[in-house]
Amino acid sequence: MEKGLIHVYYGSGKGKTTAALGLVLRALGYNKKVVFLQFLKNTPCGEIETLSKFENVTILRGKASDKMFQAMGDYERELTTRIHNENLKLAHQAVFSGSCDMLVLDEALDAVYLGLADNDLLFDIIKNKPDNLELVITGHKKIDDIFNKADYITEMVKHRHPFDRGISAREGVEY
After folding, report:
1. Would the pLDDT of 160 be above 90?
2. Which letter does DSSP use for residue 38 in this model?
3. Among residues of the chain, what percentage have pLDDT more than 90?
4. Which of 23, 65, 135, 141 is deepest in the core (most CB within 10 A)?
5. How far apart are CA 48 and CA 31, in angstroms?
6. pLDDT at residue 102, rounded to an integer
7. Residues ≥6 apart with Cβ < 8 Å to 36
8. What span, in angstroms and rounded, lies between the C-alpha atoms of 138 and 140?
9. Which positions ≥6 away from 88 have C-beta within 8 Å?
């Protein structure tokens, strides 16, 4: 079995999740088993609809409300953390039982930064990653402990974005 590596896509620019999904699609083309865990996202989107049609993908996602983190109350933050940790436990089980070839931790950098995930569990996956696991991590913030373990680090930099001009996310393009 080939050695699995750690990929990090981070920054303020568009394309982090899209890059991770490209790797997922490639892995599925070779009949690999993928766990796709999304932190801080729960709204319907085209990529999740499409991924759900593949039998080799386990999708784990959710948060307590559709609000952005800053607008959440204490109860919503606690519930979101509980949802994230339950999903993280399921991903941890899949990784260490050998039933996962690729794990995507989408927006994990943000979940760590905001204190919305069990860092011990997440870092256990990173530090004790099975040799054959391909691990993909995305988010906005640079987290040194994760970056120090990464084999690939790609920064997505925003130079211009339609949202800055009041153009909302578009179905089929941004979600």
Report:
1. yes
2. E
3. 89
4. 135
5. 18
6. 98
7. 24, 51, 57, 58, 59, 60, 61, 104, 106
8. 7
9. 37, 117, 118, 121, 122
CB contact burial 93-119 (16+ within 10 A = b; e otherwise): ebbeeeebbbbbbbbbbbbbbbebbbe
Express each pLDDT in 58-80 by its tens digit.
999 999 888 889 899 999 999 99
Residue 156 tokens read as 């997505």
Q: Which amino acid is at 162?
A: P
CA distance 146 to 124: 11
**Reduced to 3 states, what is the DSSP secondary structure of residue 100?**
coil
Q: What's the order of all strands across the beta sheet hosting 102-106?
A: 57-62, 34-39, 102-106, 134-139, 6-10, 152-155
Characterise 23 by phi-psi region: left (phi > 0), alpha (psi -120 to 50), beta (else). alpha
pTM over 0.90? The answer is yes
Q: What letter represents residue 54's amino acid? A: F
Q: Look up residue 151 and give its two tokens.
A: 């084999």
Taking alpha carbons only, the member of 138, 153, 143 closest to residue 38 is 138
Q: Are 76 and 114 in contact (CB under 8 A)?
A: no
pLDDT of residue 1: 58
Q: Answer for the pair 107, 41: CB distance below 8 angstroms, yes or no.
A: yes
For the record, the structure tokens of 92 come out as 């941890």
The residue type of 142 is K
The mean predicted confidence, pLDDT, of the chain is: 95
